[in-house]
Amino acid sequence: GINGFEVQKQNCCWLLVTHKTCVKDDVMPALRKATGDAILKFEPLILHVQCRELQDAQILHSVAIDSGFRNSGITVGKRGKTMLAIRSTHGLEVPLSHKGKLMVTEEYIDFLLQIANQKMEENKKRIERFYNCLQHALEKETVTNSYPKKKIKDKNNSSYTRKKKRNPEAAHDKCITEENDEDCENDDDPGISITIFPED
């Protein structure tokens, strides 16, 4: 803990926890306190949302995928509770010490921190993109719902399909800004998919 407190989780002691970019001078004093195995870990945003209806979860899922959170999914429980998990795949987990002994060089730790900090900045961009795209989607949904129901049916406004291949020329329902346009082009995206698992 940066402020002198330790966070306990699953029988582990967190030596350093921060939501900001980190430098070697922050990490090395924390590593010296380690008596067991120490791991450097970066975790991107994880957001769980309970949705009133499946359609709400589908809208959020589309926004999450378009914003770069490629590991997102929808879970429908036995009693119909619909949960959306917004997750990304750009995490980082690297062992640094074993039984209190540092197993890597300080230069390598500095290198890892640069990577982790880049991932942190990317995480912030994706969160901001998600927020902007969500606002856009909700505004669009409000406008769509203000039309009479007959017109909505005539437009064939199915908000979601099981698997939808993307057409780069016609990015249907996709929120593209100047900031994320280049990211979307470079993404190895197989398409939008939905995974529904029964709740344990």
Strand-residue proportion:
15-25%
CATH topology of one domain: SSo0622-like fold
Cα radius of gyration in angstroms: 21 Å
Q: Could you give the count of β-strands?
A: 11
Quickly list its features.
alpha+beta; SSo0622-like fold; about 200 residues; three-stranded antiparallel β-sheet; 5 helices; single chain; 11 strands
Task: Report what the structure shows.
- Its EC number is 2.1.1.282.
- Residues 6-135 form the tRNA wybutosine-synthesizing protein domain.
- Keywords: Methyltransferase, S-adenosyl-L-methionine, Transferase, tRNA processing.
- With 200 residues, the protein is of the alpha+beta class.
- The protein has a domain at 32-145: tRNA wybutosine-synthesizing-like (SSo0622-like fold), CATH 3.30.1960.10.
- 39% of the residues lie in helices and 20% in strands.
- The protein contains five helices and eleven strands; from the N terminus they run ββαββαββββααβαββ.
- The protein has helices at residues 24-32, 54-66, 106-146, 149-154, 178-186, and strands spanning 7-9, 12-14, 38-42, 47-51, 73-76, 82-86, 92-98, 101-102, 163-164, 192-193, 196-198.
- The strands form four sheets. Strands 4-6-5-11 form a four-stranded mixed beta sheet, with helices on one face.
- Helix 2 (54-66) crosses helix 3 (106-146).
- The longest helix is centred in the middle third of the chain and has 41 residues, at 106-146.
- It is elongated and about 65 Å long.
Provide a brief overview of the structure.
The protein is built from 5 helices and 11 strands. With 200 residues, it is of the alpha+beta class.
